[in-house]
Design goal:
Elements lengths: L1 H56 L2 E3 L7 E3 L2 E4 L4 E6 L2 E6 L13 H4 L1 H8 L7 E5 L9 H13 L4 E5 L6 H12 L3 E5 L3 H5 L4 H10 L9 H17 L1 E4 L3 E3 L9 E7 L6 E11 L4 H13 L10 H11 L8 E3 L1 H4 L17 H17 L2 E3 L2 H4 L9 H8 L11
Parallel strand pairs: 6-7, 6-9, 7-8, 11-13
Antiparallel strand pairs: 1-2, 3-4, 4-5, 9-12, 10-14, 11-12
Helix pairs in contact: 7-9, 8-9, 9-10
Length: 410
């Protein structure tokens, strides 16, 4: 019995490797089966995802050119950046997938409906010169530099009238900002513009409709910048007067100027202008050159090129019509409005370090007083610079302010 028992134990030990191999084989087969099933599932999911992507790639897009007209266009949609990429036979283009009627300057309400009447009433008070500025930004951004620009208008034109075209400034907070000037009897008013009214019956009317409906690409340049470019043209064409950027310090009266635009740069040899700028515009109502500016803006609008719809636009138009009959206007040299290039504007803010720099400042201030109507500050380059007391800009601001608070602040 013991031997038999011993024999049984011997047999079990001899069979144990066989059993182990069978169990191992079953385990490997199970794992292989799971792998095959998983692979089949993944391939099926990938196929479904690919099929869904192909469906997304080729929807039918309805454009609002005509009713019931369908254009099948392959699209690649990026939901993260809200950019639609259009692939067609003309190549690949990009446009922002956004409609813009919600932009504050496009809004029409009871306030904007009063725009025309408010303009006529405001300028019907013996204004020496009619000035316009635009402000398409938050009211809180209208700071000390902008107030200084407004002050300089009234220092040179105590009986002038300044209208700031701005929905945000046409508010209680905007009124508080301008109140110190109003308390001193200066005629300044912020008015929410009626943009559709201003461009009505001009080439920009169709441009505005396309922009609001989403047919036109606003581009990468901040839309406010290009809206200001158009708004200044529209208001001058409608009413006539002087347009000034809010980063412009007036040094002397504009009263003698008529139908004038300024050169930003000239050729040092020929003395012919090479580029104009639209930071200062002086034009009569319904002037043909201003209408030509509006037409060029609407027809060649490009929201992705800086200056294309502003300084470069006015330069293109004037180059095309200069010398032609029917366009009567004057181009002033850079010293009139742009006496310092944008790359060198910082030199006007610095305090002199030695006697040579003091002499330069004295000479520069004297030159500007004699030859310049005002100085464009190129805020994009100079907005963060402090106005140091004793600098050229410090001298000019101190002499051309009316409130004279925070003159040496940005």
């Amino acid at each position: 019995m013991a031997a038999k028992s011993f024999g049984c134990r011997v047999v079990n030990r001899s069979k144990s490797p066989v059993v182990f191999m069978i169990l191992f084989a079953l385990l490997m087969f199970s794992m292989l089966a799971d792998s095959i099933v998983s692979k089949i599932s993944l391939e099926s999911a990938a196929f479904n995802q690919k099929r869904d992507y192909q469906v997304l790639q080729s929807p039918k897009v309805v454009r609002n050119f005509k009713r019931n007209v369908v254009f099948p266009l392959p699209l690649t949609v990026s939901t993260q950046n809200k950019i639609i990429r259009v692939d067609n036979e003309h190549g690949i283009g990009k446009f922002r997938r956004r409609r813009l009627p919600e932009h504050e300057v496009f809004m029409s309400d009871e306030l904007t409906k009063k725009f025309h009447g408010r303009v006529l009433e405001f300028f019907n008070h013996g204004c020496e010169v009619h000035f316009f500025m635009t402000w398409i930004a938050k009211v809180g951004s209208f700071g000390r530099r902008e107030i200084m620009a407004v002050e300089s208008v009234f220092k040179a034109h105590p009986n002038g009238c300044l209208m700031i075209l701005s929905r945000t400034m046409d508010s209680v907070q905007g009124y508080r900002i301008l109140k110190p000037l109003l308390d001193r009897g200066f005629k300044v008013l912020a008015v929410a513009p009626d943009f559709p009214f201003l461009v009505k019956n001009t080439p920009a009317e169709a441009w505005l409709d396309d922009m609001k409906s989403g047919k036109k690409d606003p581009g990468e340049i901040p839309l406010a910048q290009n809206l200001s470019n158009l708004l200044r043209l529209a208001v001058l064409y409608k009413y006539g007067g002087v347009y000034l950027d809010t980063d412009f310090i007036v040094l002397r009266s504009f009263k003698g100027l008529k139908n004038t635009i300024g050169a930003q740069s000239i050729d040092v040899v020929s003395k012919n202008w090479t580029r104009l700028n639209n930071a200062v515009l002086v034009f009569d109502m319904n002037h043909p050159l201003v209408l030509k500016f509006i037409e060029e803006f609407a027809l060649t609008f490009d929201g992705n090129k800086w200056g294309h719809n502003g300084p470069y636009m006015v330069s293109r138009v004037v180059r095309g019509v200069e010398g032609r009959a029917g366009y009567n206007f004057t181009i002033l040299p850079p010293m009139a409005f742009y006496p310092v290039d944008w790359m060198k504007i910082g030199s006007l803010f610095k305090l002199p370090n030695d006697s040579a720099e003091w002499r330069w400042i004295e000479a520069k201030v004297l030159q500007l007083k004699r030859q310049t109507y005002g100085v464009h500050l190129w805020n994009k380059q100079s907005s963060k610079l402090m106005v140091e007391e004793g600098s050229v800009m410090g001298r000019l601001m101190a002499e051309n302010c009316v409130l004279c608070k925070h003159v040496y602040s940005s």
